[in-house]
Amino acid sequence: MDRRTFMIASATMALPNIARAQSAPTRIVFWHSMTAVLGEEVNRLCDTFNSSQSAIQVQPLFRGGYAESMTAAIAAWRAGQAPHLVQVFEVGTGSMLGAGPAVRQIWELSQETGIDIDPAVFIPAVRGYYSLTDGRLASMPFNSSTAVMFYNKDSFEKAGLDPETPPATWKHVIAAAQAIRASSAAAIPMTTSWPVWIQLEQFGAIHDLPYATQANGFDGLDAELLINTEHYVAQVQRLLDMAKDGTFRYGGRDNSADAMFPSGQAAMSFNSSSVRSDIARTANFRWGTAMLPYDPAVIDQPINSIIGGASLWPMTTPNRTPEEYKAVASFLLFLSQPENVASWSKNTGYVPVTVAGYELMRQQGFFKENPGADVPIEQLTRGTMTKNSMGFRLGRMAELRNIISEELERALQGAQSAQAAMDVSVRRGNRVLRDFQRTQRS
User: Fold this and answer.
1) What is the distance between the alpha carbons of residues 141 and 137, in angstroms, rounded to a whole number?
2) Please, are residues 131 and 391 in contact by the beta-carbon 8 Å criterion?
3) What is the mean pLDDT of residues 233-262?
4) Where do the DSSP E strands lie in 210-298?
5) Most buried pick, 154, 250, 282, 426, via CB within 10 A?
6) Are the CB atoms for 95 and 396 separated by under 8 Å?
7) Contact, 248 vs 177, CB < 8 A?
8) 7 pLDDT above the threshold of 50
9) 10 Å Cβ neighbour count for 41?
10) Is 424 helix (H, G, I), strand (E, B) or coil?
């Protein structure tokens, strides 16, 4: 048996025997935040599971955006009416871990039900984000992505740049942006979606820089932000300088800048790898995918990026039965099977979250037929993961992102320097962290 076959075989776990059909199958309510095509894929997965046996029926329900769904789930738990499963975005991980008895962590679920969901089958960068410091899996990886750079090959060629050689360092990005501006090869040389996630959080990970003390929060609730240190400030200054000379255009928070690239306005765009399928459907020009650029003055060889997306959290209620928890575990084990991981990834653009799922896609020729689709996986598995590239365990992280966005915007408007923006972000952010810490102790 070769290594590839072994990995698939070892990660392909036989689903547990499910009792024969009963008069009333165990019903599982699954709250998610997927819309449009993504929502259809969630329904497809649930339908496939439901039709594969008759003892369990999973009911997927759209419950609003990530923040709304997480808040609603906790409120429902307080009322004794929590769903069996809720999809929570990655920045909600710290808050969900702080939810205590409201959730049944994956390792607990496996232990109680006897259904083994093995953390080792998941890609390390994915597993690390959703695990405890001792390796036990807290939540179930589901839709994972990372950040990459998309670039317009036609614009590169028009600017006299090699369309098959995307810029690997920030120095090369700046040079390419200047060439694109000088040749009017695109109205916007460079933009970014998710500015805080990509230009600060991902920047810190691939450069092996601490974002906060206590291993980015993994080692304790008393973490403090470190983004007002030299290299983070230099990264913000780089963006400010590019905005000033017209090579970078700020498109807004979160995914506000998404349309700039597929419309042909922007020649380079940093975004989630999950938008690849949308670009493929709408862009009418040649385009490519590249890893995030790095700064050789900070690190000789960049390491792994971190994930975005969401995971699945089992929830509790006072009257929830052992049969219901076992049904939840059975469904989660189903989702981790290579064929289901691969089909979800191919149909949505999210990365395959297991090694076996990735290997299956490679064996099926998906990456040869879709050049660049493997870039996110290569970046996530690059180098050796450290405490600085595992991810984050900071409470109320969505609120932290909003604070940093506000201060970045003030700097882009000329109201403060890069250093001041990061200093204020740290002061404001640390107050949020201390407040979260107090709530966990009360």
Assistant:
1) 9
2) no
3) 97
4) 266-272, 287-290
5) 426
6) yes
7) yes
8) no
9) 18
10) helix
Task: Scan for tokens 């995918």, then name that residue.
Answer: 289
Helix (H, G, I), strand (E, B) or coil at 172: helix
How many other C-beta atoms can be found within 10 angstroms of the C-beta atom of residue 36?
Answer: 8
- Which SS3 state, helix, strand or coil, does residue 253 take? coil
Closest Cα partner for 188 from 252, 268, 275?
268
* C-alpha distance from residue 135 to each of 85, 118, 426 (Å): 22, 11, 29
CA nearest neighbour of 199 among 295, 316, 342: 295
Q: What share of the chain is helix, strand, coil (3-state, %, to 5)?
A: 50, 15, 35
In sequence order, the 6+-apart residues with CB closer than 8 A to the CB of 281 are: none
Q: How far is CA 40 from the centre of its chain?
A: 20
**Model's pTM, two decimal places?**
0.90
Q: What are phi and psi of 219, to 5 degrees?
A: -95, 5
For the record, the structure tokens of 112 come out as 């109680």
* Both structure tokens of 311: 């995971």
Number of Cβ within 10 Å of residue 74's Cβ equals: 16
Q: Going by DSSP bridges, is the β-strand pair 140-145/147-152 parallel, antiparallel, or unpaired?
A: unpaired
Measured distance between the N- and C-terminal CA atoms of the chain, rounded to whole angstroms: 54
**Euclidean distance between CA atoms 63 and 53, whole angstroms:** 26
Distance CA 24, CA 141 (A): 29
Structure tokens at 108: 């607990």
Q: Which residue has the tokens 């036990």?
A: 136
Buried b vs exposed e over 301-327: b needs ≥16 C-beta within 10 Å? ebbbbbbbbbbbbbbbbeebeeebbbb
Please tell me the predicted confidence (pLDDT) of residue 3. 41
Confidence grade of residue 108 (pLDDT, cut at 50, 70, 90) = very high
